[in-house]
Specification:
Blueprint lengths: L2 H6 L10 H14 L1 H6 L3 E5 L2 E4 H13 L2 H4 L5 H31 L6 H14 L5 H10 L4 H22 L7 H11 L4 E2 L2 E10 L2 E2 L2 E2 L1 H19 L4 H8 L10 E6 L5 H8 L10 E2 L3 E11 L2 E2 L2 H31 L2 E3 L2 H15 L10
Antiparallel strand pairs: 1-2, 1-11, 3-10, 4-7, 4-9, 5-6, 8-9
Helix pairs in contact: 2-6, 4-6, 6-9, 6-15, 10-14
């Protein structure tokens, strides 16, 4: 329920785009095209009398921009930001109208956020974001340009939206036996668990410098590795010898590695280990760092869950795919009954573009639901 809201407070520890940089980019975009010029009006759209404002819109834009890794990982130019703003704007306005429709429906059904619910959600947000100190929490609110009352409004909107979806959409979705079996028959490999193995290792490192490897040191390392392998075959404990002689960080854990997927290993190593029985050792292997001995501690084979074993997962996946389709139908019904009054034709076009993309199966910004 609070997933989107939690992201608002990741600012206490996460690296964000500077607010001034975003504001300048938004201002530049607003001035660049008619759509953005009209957005300077306070009210952008009315939905059954409820308004969506310029401030609401910019707040959503900033939240999406800050969540974009391609922007947060570098120093984006204004041109980069303007391009992304143009990409995300249609989906943002569509999702904002959807939210208004769902919230209005929730109010019709007399749903509301109680003081106790708000307190519990607020406590969860503080704990999840290490903001239990009230001073830090208030600082985080200030950084987001938000008051506690405004936060409550956002949480209530999300709660009403979620509750309407649960009652009017999710509760009406069922998955038949035939649907579940049909899904499994075409996607059985999705329920495949790859083979895994647990290994132990001892690494005898060969010193190297800019001139390469000294032959004598290489021979000495190989001989020490061979001697250790003999001692292992004679029955000395692998964990003790690994802790005493290995140059690998795994020595702290008795040389233990894994469990790891067989598919993560190099093909040659997969072939070598495939020939071993549990408890057996590899020959001494030359690696880039030196000489290595591996022991196969445990192995699980590749397994595909049976239909019965995967039944719960299948039901969830089929229901989720139905949820998206049913939610779109439900929103379309609310939309047909709604009085939507646009204050800008360009913004209306952006909304209609996003709506068409959704019906064609295109991806949105991910803000819905």
């Amino acid at each position: 329920m609070t997933k989107r809201l939690l992201s608002l407070y990741a600012t206490a520890s996460a690296r964000l785009l500077p607010a001034g940089c975003i504001a300048l980019a938004l201002a530049a975009v607003f001035a660049a095209v008619p759509l953005r010029a009209e957005i300077l009006e306070q009210v952008l759209v009315k939905v059954n009398g409820d308004i969506f404002t310029k401030t609401d819109f910019e707040s959503r834009q900033v939240a999406v921009l800050r969540a974009r890794p391609d922007l947060a990982s570098g120093n984006p130019t204004n041109a980069d930001l303007q391009r992304v703003v143009a990409e995300i704007t249609p989906a943002i306005i569509l999702e904002a109208v959807d939210e208004l429709l769902l919230v209005q429906r929730g109010r019709e059904l007399n749903y509301a956020l109680t003081d106790e619910q708000f307190k519990q959600i607020l406590d969860n947000i503080k704990k999840a974001n290490d903001l239990t100190d009230e001073t830090r929490f208030q600082a985080a609110l200030k950084q987001e340009g938000m008051t506690l009352d405004e936060l409550r409004v956002r949480i209530e909107r999300q709660m009403l939206s979620d509750q309407v979806q649960r009652v009017d959409v999710l509760s009406k979705i069922s998955v038949s036996e035939e649907e579940a079996r049909a899904y499994y028959q075409t996607r059985a490999q999705e329920f495949r668990t790859p083979a895994e193995m647990t290994l132990r290792e001892i690494l005898i490192e060969v010193p190297a410098n800019e001139k390469g490897v000294n032959v004598a040191q290489d021979d000495d390392a190989r001989e020490r590795a061979e001697e250790l392998r003999k001692r292992l075959l004679a029955g000395e404990p692998f964990p003790r010898l690994a802790a005493e002689y290995s140059s690998s960080a795994s020595k702290a854990n008795g040389g233990l590695i894994g469990p790891i997927s067989s598919e993560e290993l190099a093909p040659q190593l997969q072939t070598l280990l495939a020939e071993l029985k549990v408890g057996e050792l590899t020959p001494v292997i030359r690696t880039t760092r030196g000489y290595q001995i591996l022991k196969l501690e445990a192995r699980t084979e590749t397994k595909v869950k049976t239909f019965e074993e995967a039944r719960g997962e299948i039901a969830d996946r089929v229901a989720d795919s139905k949820r998206l389709a049913e939610l779109e139908k439900y929103l379309d019904r609310l939309r047909e009954q709604a009085d939507i009054e646009w204050r800008n034709e360009e913004l209306k076009k952006a909304y209609e573009l996003a709506l068409q993309r959704r019906r064609n199966g295109a991806t949105t910004t991910g803000q819905q639901g």
